[in-house]
Amino acid sequence: MHRCMTEWAEEYGPIYHVRFLMIHYIVISDPVLWTHVMRSKAVDKYRFIQVYMEPMLCGKNVLTSPTDAHWRMAMDVIGLVGFNKDMGALDHHCAAAGSKRVEDDHTATLLNSTHEITERTKELLRDLKFWKQGTRDGIALLARFRGIIDSLLRHIRQKEVAKGSFADLLLSTFKHVTPEQQADKLMLPEAATLFFAGVDTSGHAATWALYLLLQHPEVEAKVAQELDALELLVTTERPTPRPLQAADLAKLPYLSCCIKETLRLYPAVGIGHFRVNFLQDLTLAGQLHIPKGGAIWLASHALHNASFNWDDPDTFLPERWEQPGTEFALPEKLKLSKEWYEGLHANLSTSGQADDSPGQDGGRPKRYMPFAEGQRDCLGQNLARTFLLATLATLLSRLTFSLGAKMGGPEGVRASEQYTIVTGLKDGMFMHAKSRSTAAG
Ligand code: HEM
User: Fold this and answer.
1) pTM of the prediction?
2) What distances in angstroms separate CA 417 from CA 135, 166, 216, 280, 427, one per listed residue?
3) DSSP 8-state class, residue 244
4) From CA 394, how far away is CA 38, in angstroms rounded?
5) Which residues are listed as membrane-spanning (predicted)?
6) Is 378 labelled as part of a ligand binding site?
7) Ligand 1 atom 10: the closest Cα is on which residue?
8) DSSP E strand boundaries for 234-369
């Protein structure tokens, strides 16, 4: 679907209209209009889609709620992660490799429940099909997921939590809510959402990064060089390099470029974002009039991959990020006629909504927004960036990867690529990992 949106953008241009049942969407992949919508306080999440996910995430939460008081309270909470509890993920994984079933551990339940939620967004009546084993398994899985989050909340209530941790913030935000069960009811969906929003997005982004690197040995060699310079790479002379430290992350600019380029080619939320202008009519860039209540579909794969936004959009080129300002739109490439962009700054502040603001960068339009933008951007983006850098640096310093034959080469990968909530693959990505010490020896 995300690729189809990009093809339509190439064919019909950066603005087109799509009708899905009774709903009309204005689909946008023009950077100027994207930036405008993302930063506008006159638009909000399109609730029609979000409401459907709420029961699976244990209730109203920061991801699905409109930009109201509830959302603002949760926004204050999420930012620092850590329940200060060892989930035992690796222990369980090792046990699973022996005798224990993978389904028995918490990590598998958390992962599988994000998949179950994803499946339900594809098959809207899935949970009504009781005669199907898959439905009954899915219901049991979501109940186990809820149980894990419940037990996490009990755990943080009983233990001394680390100052500034997610648990600490969560407890202090809801400490005035009584009785305790009422507060737990409010905390439950926030904790559940954190796992849901953070796991598949980051996991798939790391997978796509490894896939792109194994396809481009020259890029992987440059990453290895960067790791070697920091004495983090396994070599014949250095079979056991020092462990990665937090301070190393700022010294991996080329690997950062690889991550940015991965999120350009495979934006985690590839299909894009659904917004609605709930307050009043909206005029984008002084030209595109969207009546109040109009649905806007910001096509992120198209924004990141359309030829009218990028040179060589299909090429994996981390070097493009070495150029400062790569995330900003190139005025000479913009597809709409000039008058759309004239007086852009004026339009950003007088687009029918007094409190629209040009935002950071003085309203300079962006062609790259993997974590969205504006008041509803990704709350976990710093964590995600840190996770991706640390995980990839650790893996690549010790291992080299090749694509499993089962994938059927790049064509097979492309064919099994799928978008549900996150850009992923039908049956996962099979790769072979080889120790660098074996390769060196
Ligand atoms: C590579 C990893 C990630 C990517 C690409 C990503 C991307 C996004 C995007 C595009 C949105 C906006 C969705 C929309 O407009 O509907 C979003 C929202 C959100 N993300 Fe992430 N995300 C990532 C990782 C994480 C992590 C690790 C967490 C937390 C642990 C997280 C928590 C959230 C939350 C809570 C929201 C909802 C914010 C709101 O609606 O106000 N994300 N993310």
Assistant:
1) 0.81
2) 24, 34, 19, 38, 9
3) P
4) 34
5) none
6) yes
7) 371
8) 273-277, 282-284, 288-290, 295-298
The set of residues, in sequence order, having a beta carbon less than 8 Å from that of 51 and lying 6+ positions away, is 64
Residue 273 Cβ contacting ligand 1 at under 6 Å: yes
Mean pLDDT for back-to-back runs of 10 residues, the chain (441 residues): 86 86 84 82 69 66 57 41 45 47 60 78 78 87 86 81 76 82 82 79 91 97 97 94 94 98 93 84 82 89 94 97 92 77 50 42 82 85 89 94 95 87 83 82 44
Find the helix or strand (DSSP H, E) in which 26 lies.
strand 23-28
The tokens describing 36, both together, are 């405008």
Ligand 1: centre distance to CA 268 (Å): 9
Nearest to 11 by CA among 330, 365, 307, 270: 307
- How far apart CA 379 and CA 359 sit, in angstroms, is 17
Measured CA to CA, the distance from residue 32 to residue 333 in angstroms comes to 12
Cβ(372) – ligand 1 distance below 6 Å: yes
